[in-house]
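hey so i finally got around to running the thing on that chain from the lab meeting. sorry it took forever, my laptop kept dying and i had to restart like 3 times. anyway pasting the input first so we r on the same page abt which one it is
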Amino acid sequence: MDIKIGSLDNSKQTSNDVVGSPANETVVTIRNSVSQSVTNSSEDTLGRHLARRLVQIGVTDVFCVPGDFNMTLLDYLIAESGLNLIGCCNELNAGYAADGYARSRGVGACAVTFTVGGLSLLNAIAGAYSDDLPLICIVGGPNSNAYGTKRIIHHTIGLPDFSQELRCFQTVTCYQAVVNNLESARELIDTAILTALKESKPVYISISCNLPAIPHPTFSREPVPLSLAPKLSNKMGLMAAVEATAELLNKAVKPVLVGGPKLRVAKACEAFVELADASGYALAVMPSAKGLVPEHHPHFIGTYWGALSTAFCAEIVESADAYLFTGPVFDDLSSVGYSLLIQKEKSIVVQPRGVVIADRPAFGCVLMKVFLRELAKKIKRNNTAYENYRRIFVHKGFPLKAAPKEPLRVNILIQRIQKMLSGETTVIVETGDSWFNCQKLKLPEGCG
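ok and heres what got predicted. didnt touch it at all, straight out
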């Protein structure tokens, strides 16, 4: 399922030169959905401006840990009727909660205090960065009057340097805004939020603790709506990539489709399923993409994970004479130590902004979602690989039932978990035994 961020207007196709631009417009407008009770206030403050902006992009819950540097800012977030402030036991919990919220809702937000809170949050933000999640990380910073004084303040490492936290976040966020004056505050906050949405990465916003309650003319009671320039495909590059891909696939005898984790950030899950429906190809997922592709699809054959693949999946994928990988990440874990038996001359790799076809030159500035939908119109239906899978597939027998007082076996545990799953279930596993064994689960429709 594609995730729509907040209340973004839907993009429509097209113009003469680009594909994916809104009709008769150059930008996507994020509608002003702020409550009237707040926008009628006579106090145009930094705190209210930030609260309004979060509501406008679709954030309704902010995960926080209060501290003396963010108390005033949190008061303004609480006062915004469109926001719900959720207190967490620690900063890492707040970060991972915002991570999960961003996966479900499209964008997330968390708020912590200076350095002692920010550094505790860092690991969750790094994870969100690696998984391409737009996450607004808000930190209550030192008093604006303290900058440049060479004074030591609490919640630091005991040096008169307030930049340690910022330097740490520079490597795991795509934009950093240090707000320590009101004149540039609106521009810094708005730029940070738009950059998070555009890049689909976390951003860092530090706000001096004495600024949230101060009115300023730049914080209009009716703020200018945020405008997000749409991502576009080059039309000629798109058509060339589609033609070259269709040519290779239509010549193949038993082509297959494999979905990867970048399907989510490209918002291309539905387009991928449309291609699977049109092509009739056998359909597999990489382990890190489990849950992004419906496992109830009639041509779904399981998880492709090299030697660790689900039964008979690797045989079908690796024996194919053409394979289309959509949004893959070939790291050491997903590739079983880089041991996948995939030949480059038979592969087509589609990433969120480009396509690589076998040994040919890469096609850049091609959006995955648009590419998949255009390819579905050109592809010839071919279900040979799936028919081969049906011929060799053998259903597993049910594991033996556990005897009373017998030690619990993993296969019994997984069988019990399988029976608990429904369309309203979300399965969360850690990268270890749970991840390996839960690849065996058959996720019902709606389960992720």
